[in-house]
Every structure is written in C-alpha cells, then in structure tokens.
C-alpha cells in the first residue's frame, strides 16, 4: 500500500504536542524477543523510533479500529493492540512500570477518530439539554 | 517506514461508515529527472475518506486500497491546473509531494474540499474546544436565570456538568479522564467513560462532583474543578439566556461556513502561487 511516508515522518517528529511518549518493549512478529523502542502517540498514529533522538520513525501503527487489552506475558506490564480482520497483526507491548502501562492503555484507548466523535456527540447532547433547561 | 498494513487495509474496507467517498482523478507525480516529462496525466481512482485516513482504490469494488494518504499536518486548497475542479492536498513539510485531485464537477469539488478540511485530529480538537466553550457559556446562562426551584435542583442534581472528567480536552493528563481501563474498543463500549453519567458508578478514581452552577460564585472551587478555563465565579449574563444559547450555536456553525467560503474565495483571487 502506498503511503505519504515523508509527510508522515515529518508529522511524527514536528513539534506538535504528543498525546503520550515513552519507552516500550515491542515484541517481534515472528520471534518472541522484545525490542526497546521510543514510542510517540499523536492522535491515532503510534510512531516508534529506534532511539529517543532518532530523526525518523522506524514504523507507525495506525490505531483506528483497534482494541487495547491487558495481556499475560512473562514480560510483565504487557498489553496488546488488536485489530479486526483475520490477517491483522497483534502488537504486544510492555511498559516498564504499572503506572506507565496504565497511562499507555488509557491514551491508546482514546486514540481514535471514533472516540473523538463520541466526545463531540456527547458535548452536543449536553448543549441541547442545557438549552432545554433554559427554555 | 513500517506500517500495520493488513489492519489498515481491513479498516479501509470494513463496514465502518465513510465520511466521504467518490471518484477523483489523481495527478500522476513524475520525478523531476525523468527524461521525457510531457504534460500531466491523471488516474481515475475510487477515494474513501474515513476520519483522517484517505484511501484510494483502483476500482470501486477493489478489495484492497492501492494507497493511503494520512491527513495530518496538511492543508487543502483549490488549485490552478489546466483542469477544472482541481484541488490539492499540501503538507507542512514543503518537500513532501502534494496530491492534486480533480473532481467531476463544482459540487463534488466543494464537497471534497469541505470534507478534507475537517479530516484531522486538530480539527476535531478545535470542535471539542468550541463545544466546551459553548457549554461553559450555557452554564453561565443557566446560573444567571431565575428558575423555579424544581428546575434548578434537577439541573444541579443531574450531575452532568461540563467539568465532567470524561469530556476534558484530550491533551489533558490521562489520569483525569475516564475511570478504569478495562477493554475498550475504539468506537464501542460507550457506557464507560464517554457518556458523562453519574459519578456514582465510577471506579472511585474520578474526582468528587463540582459544585452546581448557581453556587460556584460563592466559593473559589478551583481545587475541585478539573477543567481548565472554567472560572470558579460564574458571570451574570446581561442578555436573555435563551437567546445567548441558541444564537451562539447558530453563530458558531454559521462562522464555520463563512470561514470556509472566505478561504475558497481568497484562494481563487490569489490565483497562481
């Protein structure tokens, strides 16, 4: 699939604020070894870098349509990002502390357009009710 | 750059609703050093917009997208081209390629430009901020009006308040939003935090409910209020509350359209950059 890689890499490293950032261990797809990577979450894009000061992300996980779950792992503080579709890869990540894990699971659970739409709908509903309350 | 391609392809074709879809002609970008660079050519593709993801397919029935344009850090502009109804997606990264697209007609072009202008997280955050501001003003109006005891007690007892942690801007620290983190599918599981309901069944992790609007001015409740920008003292509204609420809503939507129209007109005037 073609991708606008260059502008995406620019977006990953530009100074727009990140929703979360930190080191996580990422389990490889075929081999179970974990690799420590620097992760940056912006909106529904989860970028990962080899090092914290790397100039370009190694990869990006587009989070739209995903589920985030805690998971058992010898690694501890592990959670998984799962997607629909039988061929989709599940990303198993591990944080370095309970607090970090909880923080990541929370941010990732909200990292979607669908979630934003929910928030907007809810606010609009509240506004309507306010208006009715005043009428 | 690695990409979770299979899940993205699945998302592109799954039955989640698209924000916009249709045929567009996409200009073929050639490298500068191509020996024979005569004229421009276009390829007709089926485009599907879901959120900030713009997919394009070879055919309408194709099972997998040919490509994806992630729409963050970009602007959409009308553009000069030998083609009518052309517009361009340009990125903050000036060196990145732009996408020049051509619609079938004026209406189609305007619809695409409008849809694409809103297709970013930044835009959604703006919308949320605006709505919160509207709510805050409505709150003030509510506090300002002299209502029957029945009315005001029901509104204060309802516990739906704009400083509900569930609705803070998403850039707030995670700890102030939502209670617990048990499995949450994006888009599903609404009952948890997103519906700003009673604090009664939270997991004990949310803050105590803030004071009801009509009593806020009595105390500086800064400590209890997790929402930024919410002044503890509610101001009296000089204008009738009903008018303020409704007309502000109208204003806001009207402003959005006015801004868009102005931008289109300005770009047309600017002509060729």
TrEMBL record, chain A:
InterPro entries the record matches: Boi1/Boi2-like (IPR045188), PH-like_dom_sf (IPR011993), PH_domain (IPR001849)
The protein's name: Sesquipedalian-1
GO annotation (BP), single: retrograde transport, endosome to Golgi
Encoding gene per record: Pheta1
GO cellular component annotations of the record: clathrin-coated vesicle; cytosol; early endosome; recycling endosome; trans-Golgi network
Principal subcellular localization: cytoplasm
Classification lineage: Eukaryota, Metazoa, Chordata, Craniata, Vertebrata
Stated role: Plays a role in endocytic trafficking. Required for receptor recycling from endosomes, both to the trans-Golgi network and the plasma membrane.
Keywords: Cytoplasmic vesicle, Endosome, Golgi apparatus, Phosphoprotein
Annotated PH domain residues: 17-113
Superkingdom of source: Eukaryota
Annotated TM spans: none
Recorded family membership: Belongs to the sesquipedalian family.
Localization, UniProt: Cytoplasmic vesicle, Clathrin-coated vesicle; Early endosome; Golgi apparatus, trans-Golgi network; Recycling endosome
Gene3D superfamilies linked: Pleckstrin-homology domain (PH domain)/Phosphotyrosine-binding domain (PTB)
From TrEMBL, chain B:
GO biological process: endosome organization; receptor recycling; retrograde transport, endosome to Golgi
Any coiled-coil regions, as ranges: none
Subcellular location: Early endosome; Recycling endosome; Golgi apparatus, trans-Golgi network; Cytoplasmic vesicle, Clathrin-coated vesicle
One annotated Gene Ontology cellular component of this protein: early endosome
Domain PH residues, every copy: 17-121
Known function: Plays a role in endocytic trafficking. Required for receptor recycling from endosomes, both to the trans-Golgi network and the plasma membrane.
Keywords, alphabetical: Cytoplasmic vesicle, Endosome, Golgi apparatus, Phosphoprotein
PROSITE patterns recorded: PH_DOMAIN (PS50003)
Keyword Kinase: no
The keyword Phosphoprotein is annotated on this UniProt entry: yes
Region (Disordered): 148-169, 200-237
Low complexity bias locations: 218-233
Protein's name according to its UniProt entry: Sesquipedalian
Protein family per UniProt: Belongs to the sesquipedalian family.
Lineage top rank: taxon: Eukaryota
A Pfam family the protein falls into: PH
């Amino acid at each position: 699939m073609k991708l606008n890689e260059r502008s995406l890499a620019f977006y990953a490293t530009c100074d727009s604020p990140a929703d979360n950032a930190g080191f996580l261990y990422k389990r490889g797809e075929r081999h179970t070894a974990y690799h420590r990577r620097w992760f940056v979450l912006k909106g529904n894009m989860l970028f990962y870098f080899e090092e914290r000061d790397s100039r370009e992300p190694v990869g990006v996980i587009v989070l739209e349509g995903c589920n985030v779950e805690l998971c058992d792992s010898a690694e501890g503080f592990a959670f998984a990002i799962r997607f629909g579709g039988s061929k989709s890869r599940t990303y198993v990540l591990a944080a370095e502390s309970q607090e970090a894990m909880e923080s990541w699971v929370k941010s990732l659970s909200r990292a979607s357009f669908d979630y934003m739409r929910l928030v907007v709908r809810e606010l609009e509903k509240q506004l309507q009710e306010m208006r009715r309350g005043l009428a | 750059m690695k990409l979770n391609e299979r899940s993205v392809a699945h998302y592109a074709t799954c039955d989640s609703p698209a924000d916009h879809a249709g045929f567009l002609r996409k200009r073929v970008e050639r490298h500068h050093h191509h020996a024979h660079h005569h004229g421009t050519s276009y390829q007709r593709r089926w485009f599907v917009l879901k959120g900030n993801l713009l997919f394009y397919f070879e055919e309408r029935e194709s099972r997998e997208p040919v490509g994806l344009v992630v729409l963050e850090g970009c602007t959409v502009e009308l553009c000069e081209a030998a083609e009518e109804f052309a517009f361009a997606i340009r990125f903050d990264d000036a060196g990145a390629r732009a996408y020049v697209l051509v619609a079938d007609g004026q209406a189609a072009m305007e619809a695409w430009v409008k849809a694409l202008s809103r297709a970013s997280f930044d835009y959604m955050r703006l919308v949320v901020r605006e709505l919160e501001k509207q709510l805050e003003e409505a709150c003030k109006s509510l506090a300002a009006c002299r209502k029957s005891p029945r009315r005001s007690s029901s509104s204060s007892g309802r516990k739906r308040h704009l400083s509900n942690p569930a609705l803070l801007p998403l850039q707030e620290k995670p700890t102030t939003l939502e209670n617990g983190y048990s499995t949450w599918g994006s888009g599903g599981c609404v009952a948890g935090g997103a519906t700003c309901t009673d604090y009664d069944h939270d997991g004990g992790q949310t803050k105590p409910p803030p004071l009801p609007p009509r009593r806020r001015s009595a105390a500086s409740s800064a400590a209890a209020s997790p929402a930024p920008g919410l002044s503890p003292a509610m101001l009296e509204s000089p204008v009738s509350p009903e008018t303020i609420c409704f007309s502000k809503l109208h204003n806001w939507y009207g402003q959005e359209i006015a801004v868009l129209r102005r931008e289109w007109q300005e770009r047309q005037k600017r002509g060729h950059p």
